[in-house]
Structures are given as structure tokens and as C-alpha cells.
Amino acid sequence: MSSSDEDEMPLARRPRKSGGRVVLPDKIDPAVDRQMEEESMEIDAAHAPGIAIDPAKASKVINGTSGKRKAAMKPTVKDESDSDNEPLSKRRRTVNGISRHQLSDESDDSDAIPLKSSRAKKPAKPKEQSESDFEADDSDIPLQKLSKEKKEIEKAASKQAKKEKATPKTKVTPKAKAANKRKPKDESPSDASDSDVPIAKQRKTASAKKGKAVKKEEDEEPTPVKGKKAKVKVEEAAPKKTAKGKGKAKDEEAPSPEGEDEDAEGYKWWLAEQGDGKQKWETLQHSGVMFPPPYEVLPTNIKMKYNGVPIVLSPEAEEVAGFMAALLEADQAKDQKFIENFFADWKEVLKKFGGAKDQNGKTIKIESYDKCDFRPMFEYFTAQKEAKKAMSNVEKKALKAEKEKVEEPYQYCQWNGRKEKVGNFRVEPPGLFRGRGEHPKRGMLKLRVQPEQITLNIGKEATVPPPPKGHKWGNIVHNQTASWLAMWTENINNNVKYVMLAVTSSLKGQSDFKKYEKARELKKHIDKIRRDYTRDLSDKQTMIRQRATAIYLIDKFALRAGNEKGDDEADTVGCCSLRYEHITLEEPNLVHFKFLGKDSIQFDQLYTVDKQVFKNLRIFKKAPKAPGDDLFDRIQTKHINEWFKDYMEGLSAKVFRTYNASWTMQKELAEMKNVGTVAQKYAAYNEANKKVAILCNHQRTKSKMHDTQMEKKMYEIKALMYQKWRLKKMILDLEPKLKKKKPEYFRPDAEIDNDEWIREHQEWLVEEEKKKIEKKFAKENEKLLENGEKEMKATELKTRLGVLNDMKKEFTKENSSGKVAAVGKSPSVEKFEEQIAKIEEKVQTRISMMKDKENTSEVSLGTSKINYIDPRLSVVFCKRFGVPLEKIFAKALRDKFKWAIESVDENWEF
DNA sequence: CTCTTTGATTCGGTGGACGCGAG
DNA sequence: CCTCGCGTCCACCGAATCAAAGA
């Protein structure tokens, strides 16, 4: 673990500069442990096994409303009671809430008893032994140095160890041991079958309830059919269990008497038998993929220039140049790396497909990007776009119909004889790679995909769709365990791209359903998991302590697991890949996280953490650790997921995100009162949605226009305030005495209480008026011309513009006298007051709209709604509060969540 | 490897500002 | 003169689509 290790560090492990070296010793030196915290005794006592984490300890601190997360360096640390912005603290309470509720039934005891025994055993027996093993095995070979082969061996070993967990071997690898440590009980008899049971159970309850629900609120379908069908299904399903595949296929035919039901639309899979999850289909027929249109060369008069000279390019080179030209006014055109990568690839293309020539055929060597002028191309594209926009509706419609006709065969496939929607059947077109953040490969040329590169996955007996003329498919396979229809490898990162079914398909619906069921299953285990990792937070072994700490972060702050990444990817991190520089510790127990997460999205939050966690992080950052070093130098995501596995089958870090998100949502919705208008309820729903989004750190970049839009809105508000103030002055014109009675009322709003601004605004008003008059004049003239009459003269315009002078005069008068003459036919105080009230209302709604917009300008609600919040929660919300579902789920989401919409009543709980 | 999650980009519909004429 | 209803137009917003990135 000395720094010299770095040199020998195999590249398989994190190759980033200084990252990846193991710095910490295997075991936490008790002296260090003590040194790191004065109150250690108390803290350790507080975290003795069996005592749950104090929910109040973790409260999320979010920096105010300004939206400037970057300024989170010194946020006010809010207390839990300070509820407003603290989804997390709330969540914690919630969590304990459920545990109590949860534990009130048998699961408590069954959990508690073995837990004790497990704890009793652990320190007693194997510890000494395994720790020495750990040292012997590992002291010279840090985890990160393990080569691929070694990892393989270990995997095998750990599997082996698991098999034999009843009789632990003397000599096991650390991982095997880690796996070993978890009590066998955790994957107890119930566990194995668990994964099936809840689904079946859920299915039953859902359909049973369905029958009832239907009777009450009529859906489109006639009640008896639906209810009956549901029932029949369940009864059939239960005993069938063993019948897979074929049986399923037959199942589907059952519904058809009811109507043409053999397409996905009518197939209610959530009422049907589930397959074994391994084989995805029996028969599969589809039309392959749709290729982007071939490149069309530009008109000969459109030429980019090099060094000021128009140049002729081969179609291939022109196409690539066009990719760059299209981005001329995008951010990419200012990104050196992007340009560099583009330029290098483009030069390759030029070399391969004949370089650039001038119009006399003389070769021009392209060597400098700066001498390239893509403007003419850019302008051509812009014009094309405009032209397209300007097309008549009829033309647009025809174009759309044409497009739909071409796409038609690709839209659907036959999946086990059912019509299912295909998702991304279009092959990705060539272009410049738009890697996110500082992706080292951004700007590189993404090549056109040829049919020869494409592998089709299709049923054995199906007709293979014909490849494009003159081409062949790369490969045809019949992989029934895969859900993809087609596949190719992209040239930038050699990533595989798949064509799959649409999210509305039953296949995707099922896996979505399973995802949420898995998250719900976590409820049963979460208390034990939390107890255990809380206990492990003070474990002597560095690895265990790191693992516990990492899991704490994953659970509390919804961090992603943080797999390792290569040098040729953007430098983004998740929990396990956090480095020294990504967290800053602030006494007494604040941690400032600042790093780039998935998609290079900033994670910048200040959290209060458990004291023991704080202490641990401090140890993990202890010298000789330095910037660039892994914070968790002894663990990788797989260790975490291995640990999880013993608690629940299929549990991984991401399940925690789903669980905590849905859990938060449920809690938020439960707190809502069934009062107010639909709009208010909807707003409340969005508030809750927003809390989840913040929890998951779902952001969106403020649109470029955001600030200008805000300014504009603010100006509009000020303009309204000015109008209001003027009306008030008019009241005074009628009833001067009122000023003494209500001096407050007649004072201008603070925002416009500024002579200079008022003067500017008056000028602006005059200017606007002028524009209006001119515009109207022009329009009238146009009409006259159209009707074959002659235009009005310029003098007419002049007279019309005369009112501007009156306006100006009036303003000047008002400014000097401080009075505004009442205008209107029969001006009265009442009339003015009415108008003022109207304006005031406008002002208020605009202000709240602005606030709302500002508030959500950097939070993206969609991602959590689509991927994290169990849709059944939203359905329950709508049913309970009488909010139309369409408010919450737009068409596409209603399709995607059909299974949820049809399977719950208002009493369903996550 | 395979599939899910993710924010950006593009698309398309809507609401509200505006003009106009009728009452 | 004011109000109301209707039509038109375009900014804007949410939805659909896209493809990258992560597990």
C-alpha cells in the first residue's frame, strides 16, 4: 500500500492518474480510531448493533431558492424541524414509521431472532481466524491490484464459499469471507420462494380488487366480462406454476373471444402467468430495422470555404463537414476538444475519399480548422429548416403520412404471436458523437451503420426481412433469452446498440412491474439491513467499514453504485468511485459532496451525516491519501452488491434508489389532505414529485433563455405595477382627500418606486405604441394592395403617430405635477378600484408563476416520474383525491403504466 | 453483454395576446 | 364607449424521441 504500488498497478483497475491505490491498512488502528473522534465511546455505544440510526441525524441541506447550487459552500444548516426543503429527514421518519408498521407482524420476530444469533456468533468464533486470513491473503495485494484472472478465481471461490457456508473453510479469500459473514438465515427458505410469492399474491389481490372496483366505477369495458376474466386467470395461474412457454402461449388465446385481443393492447399480462424470466419468447417475427436516408449532396452552389476559397468535396467528406456546419452556433463549436476530434476524423475521411479541391479541380490541402468556413452550409441548413416550417399544412400532412407509411412495417412485431410495439427501430444516423460532459471522444465521427454490421434476432421459423438492396444482414440469430430484435456495434466506444420493444410493450411493462415489486420487497429487509450496516460502520476491518459507509451513503443520499470507468470515458463517479477530492468534511458532522455523477450532472449537496460515518470518512481521507485517490479504496460495487445479495435476491444499489424514491412519494402523498381545487392538488403532487427528483438529483440545465425570460416576466410585472399606480393616481384625481386616509395604498410598489425607471418605462411604452401603429398601418396597406386598392400615404401614418406626442406630453405633465388625470367615459373611483384589483390579481399570479418556474428551472420531474415513483402510487393519488389521471400521466405514460392503472384501488400501498 | 436510466433535442399542440366586429 | 365572442398567430411548454451512460 505504499505509493510505489502505483507503478505496478494493473490497468484493469482504475487507470486514472493517481486514483486507485490502496492507501489504508486492512484494519483500522484503534489508535487512529480514537484519534479521529474524541467522543468515540458515546458514538460507538449509540451505534451498537440493534439500535437504529437516529433519523434526525441525517438531514439534507439544500441551498435555498436561488438555484445556485454551486453556492452551497456555506448553506445554513437546517434543522429537521425546519421542514421545508428536507425530503430526507422526512424520509427517515417515514422509514422508521414503516418499520414499526412492518414489524408489527410476524416478520419482526423472524428477523429479530436469527439476527441476535448471528451477532452473537460473529464476534465469538471465526473472527480471529478470518482476520489473520485477511492479512495473509491481502496485505501485499490490495484489492485493486487484483488482475482479471484473479478476480475470476475469487468469484469462483466466493461462490464455493457460499455453497459451503455452513462449514466455513479455513482458507478463504476476503470476498468469500465477506459473503460468509452474512448469516445463512438471510437467504432462508422463505427467501428463495419469496420472489415468486409476492407477485402471485399481488396478482391475486389486484385482480380480486379489480372485480370489486369495476362494479363501482364503470370503465369502458362491460363489467362482468372483465371481472370474470380476471378471476378465471388467477385461478388458472395459481396451480399452473410449472407450465411455461407453451402454456403461456395458449393462455393468450383465451382473451380473444372478448374482441380482437391478440395484440398487446388487450393482453393483460399482469393477470396472466409469468414466464420463468429466462426465455423471453417462443416465436418472434419482425421487419428488421429502418435505415436513415442516404446522404444527399448539397446543391452545387452551396460550398464551404477554406481560406476563403469555395471548395469541392466528395459526398462523404461533405456529409461530415455538414455535421460540423450544423453545429456552428451550438456550444460544440466552441469546444476545442470537440473540434479537434471532429477535425482529425474529418481529415481521415478526406484522405480516404479524395481531398478538397477548388473549383478548378486543384487540390487544396486542409490543415487548419480555423481556415474552414462552414457558414455557407450552415446557412443552407437554416434556410432548409425555415422552408420546411413554412410549408403549408397540407404539404406537412402529406409528408407526415408518407413518413408513417414507410415506418409502418417497423412499428410492430409479432412476439409470441402477439402484436407488440417496437421501440427504436431506426438505426442511429451518422453524426458527430455528442458525449456528455468532458467525454474525451466528443466530436468524433459516428459512422453510418451498414446492414452488414447488423445482427437480427428473430424466430427460427420467421421470415427474415429482406436487407436493403445490394446488401446482406451481418448475422441472423434466434436467441430466445434476449429481448432485442436487432443489434449492432457502434464505432466510437464499441458499445452495442440494441433495437428493443417499446416501453408500452408487455415485456417492458413486466420488467417495470418486477422492478417495483423488488423495491417493495426491500421494505421487508430494510430494517435489518440498516441495523447491520450501522453496526458495521465501526467494524475493525477497513473493508467492512468502507462497505458499510458506502451503503449508508447509497441508502441515505440515493447515490448510485459507482462502477469503475475507463480513461476513454468522461470522469464521472458514483459512490464506490468517489475520490478524495469529492467530499469535504466540516465539523461537527457535515459532508459536502461535490462531484460529477451520471451524465456529468453535478452532485453538489451538503449533508449532515451520522457521527460514525463522519469519523469513517475522515479516516478514509487520512494521509497519505491525497486528491486522486479513491475514497473507498478497498471496495468495489460488486462487494456491495454481494453483501446485498444475502439479504434479498436481486438486491442491488439501484433498488435503494427505487425504494427510497417510491417510499418518499408514498409518504408525501399520505400527508396530503383531500382539500382544494384539482389544480391545487395537482400542484401538491408536483411538489412531492419534486422532492423525489431532488432526492435522486435529477437536474436539468436551465434553458439558455431562462434568464432572459425571467427578466422579461419581471418587466411585465413592473409594467403592470406601473399601470396600477397610474390608476391609483387617477383615483386621487377624482378624490384627492383619499390620499391622507390611505397613504399606504397610494404609494407605488417598491419595484417601480424609481423616477428614472418610470421615465424609461414611459419611453418604452411610447416606443411600443409606435411599433403597434406602424405594424397596423403596414398590415392595412397590405390588405388594400391585395384588394387592388391603393395604399395609404405616408402622411396618414404621420397623423396616426401623432398620438405619440400626446402620450409624451401627458407623461411629462404627470412627471412634473405628480398627478394623473382620470380618463375614461365616466370615470369613477369604483371603476378604477375594480381595474386595480384586476391588475393586482394578474401581478400576483405572475409572481407565483415566476417563482414556480424559478423553483423548477433546475429540477427535472420527468425522470423520477417515469423511472422511480411506483406508478400505482400516482393512480392511488388520483383515485383518492379525484384528480383526473390525465393530469398526472400524459398519453404515453398512461400506455406505459397500463398495468398499474388497471391493477390498484385507492387503498393500495407501496 | 443486456437492459434501464438519463438529460438533451425536437416536435407539436395550446393558451393567451391581439385584432376585429357585433351588440 | 365598453364588452363579448370569435378567429388567428406565435411563443412557450410539455410530450415524444433520441442516444448516451450506467448498472
Automatic annotation (TrEMBL):
<dbReference type="InterPro" id="IPR013500">
    <property type="entry name" value="TopoI_cat_euk"/>
</dbReference>
<feature type="compositionally biased region" description="Basic residues">
    <location>
        <begin position="201"/>
        <end position="213"/>
    </location>
</feature>
<dbReference type="InterPro" id="IPR014727">
    <property type="entry name" value="TopoI_cat_a/b-sub_euk"/>
</dbReference>
<dbReference type="InterPro" id="IPR011010">
    <property type="entry name" value="DNA_brk_join_enz"/>
</dbReference>
<dbReference type="GO" id="GO:0005739">
    <property type="term" value="C:mitochondrion"/>
</dbReference>
<dbReference type="GO" id="GO:0005694">
    <property type="term" value="C:chromosome"/>
</dbReference>
<protein>
    <recommendedName>
        <fullName>DNA topoisomerase I</fullName>
        <ecNumber>5.6.2.1</ecNumber>
    </recommendedName>
</protein>
<dbReference type="GO" id="GO:0005730">
    <property type="term" value="C:nucleolus"/>
</dbReference>
<feature type="compositionally biased region" description="Acidic residues">
    <location>
        <begin position="131"/>
        <end position="140"/>
    </location>
</feature>
<feature type="compositionally biased region" description="Basic and acidic residues">
    <location>
        <begin position="24"/>
        <end position="37"/>
    </location>
</feature>
<dbReference type="InterPro" id="IPR051062">
    <property type="entry name" value="Topoisomerase_IB"/>
</dbReference>
<keyword id="KW-0238">DNA-binding</keyword>
<dbReference type="InterPro" id="IPR013030">
    <property type="entry name" value="DNA_topo_DNA_db_N_dom2"/>
</dbReference>
<dbReference type="GO" id="GO:0006271">
    <property type="term" value="P:DNA strand elongation involved in DNA replication"/>
</dbReference>
<keyword id="KW-0799">Topoisomerase</keyword>
<dbReference type="InterPro" id="IPR008336">
    <property type="entry name" value="TopoI_DNA-bd_euk"/>
</dbReference>
<feature type="region of interest" description="Disordered">
    <location>
        <begin position="1"/>
        <end position="264"/>
    </location>
</feature>
<dbReference type="GO" id="GO:0000019">
    <property type="term" value="P:regulation of mitotic recombination"/>
</dbReference>
<feature type="compositionally biased region" description="Basic residues">
    <location>
        <begin position="172"/>
        <end position="183"/>
    </location>
</feature>
<dbReference type="InterPro" id="IPR036202">
    <property type="entry name" value="TopoI_DNA-bd_euk_N_sf"/>
</dbReference>
<dbReference type="GO" id="GO:0003677">
    <property type="term" value="F:DNA binding"/>
</dbReference>
<feature type="compositionally biased region" description="Acidic residues">
    <location>
        <begin position="254"/>
        <end position="264"/>
    </location>
</feature>
<dbReference type="InterPro" id="IPR001631">
    <property type="entry name" value="TopoI"/>
</dbReference>
<dbReference type="Pfam" id="PF14370">
    <property type="entry name" value="Topo_C_assoc"/>
</dbReference>
<comment type="function">
    <text>Releases the supercoiling and torsional tension of DNA introduced during the DNA replication and transcription by transiently cleaving and rejoining one strand of the DNA duplex. Introduces a single-strand break via transesterification at the specific target site 5'-[CT]CCTTp site in duplex DNA. The scissile phosphodiester is attacked by the catalytic tyrosine of the enzyme, resulting in the formation of a DNA-(3'-phosphotyrosyl)-enzyme intermediate and the expulsion of a 5'-OH DNA strand. The free DNA strand then undergoes passage around the unbroken strand thus removing DNA supercoils.</text>
</comment>
<dbReference type="InterPro" id="IPR013034">
    <property type="entry name" value="DNA_topo_DNA_db_N_dom1"/>
</dbReference>
<dbReference type="GO" id="GO:0009303">
    <property type="term" value="P:rRNA transcription"/>
</dbReference>
<dbReference type="InterPro" id="IPR013499">
    <property type="entry name" value="TopoI_euk"/>
</dbReference>
<feature type="domain" description="DNA topoisomerase I eukaryotic-type">
    <location>
        <begin position="432"/>
        <end position="882"/>
    </location>
</feature>
<dbReference type="GO" id="GO:0006265">
    <property type="term" value="P:DNA topological change"/>
</dbReference>
<dbReference type="GO" id="GO:0007076">
    <property type="term" value="P:mitotic chromosome condensation"/>
</dbReference>
<dbReference type="Pfam" id="PF01028">
    <property type="entry name" value="Topoisom_I"/>
</dbReference>
<keyword id="KW-0413">Isomerase</keyword>
<dbReference type="GO" id="GO:0007097">
    <property type="term" value="P:nuclear migration"/>
</dbReference>
<dbReference type="GO" id="GO:0003917">
    <property type="term" value="F:DNA topoisomerase type I (single strand cut, ATP-independent) activity"/>
</dbReference>
<feature type="compositionally biased region" description="Basic and acidic residues">
    <location>
        <begin position="146"/>
        <end position="167"/>
    </location>
</feature>
<dbReference type="GO" id="GO:0006357">
    <property type="term" value="P:regulation of transcription by RNA polymerase II"/>
</dbReference>
<dbReference type="InterPro" id="IPR025834">
    <property type="entry name" value="TopoI_C_dom"/>
</dbReference>
<dbReference type="GO" id="GO:0006368">
    <property type="term" value="P:transcription elongation by RNA polymerase II"/>
</dbReference>
<comment type="similarity">
    <text>Belongs to the type IB topoisomerase family.</text>
</comment>
<feature type="active site" description="O-(3'-phospho-DNA)-tyrosine intermediate">
    <location>
        <position position="868"/>
    </location>
</feature>
<dbReference type="InterPro" id="IPR018521">
    <property type="entry name" value="TopoIB_AS"/>
</dbReference>
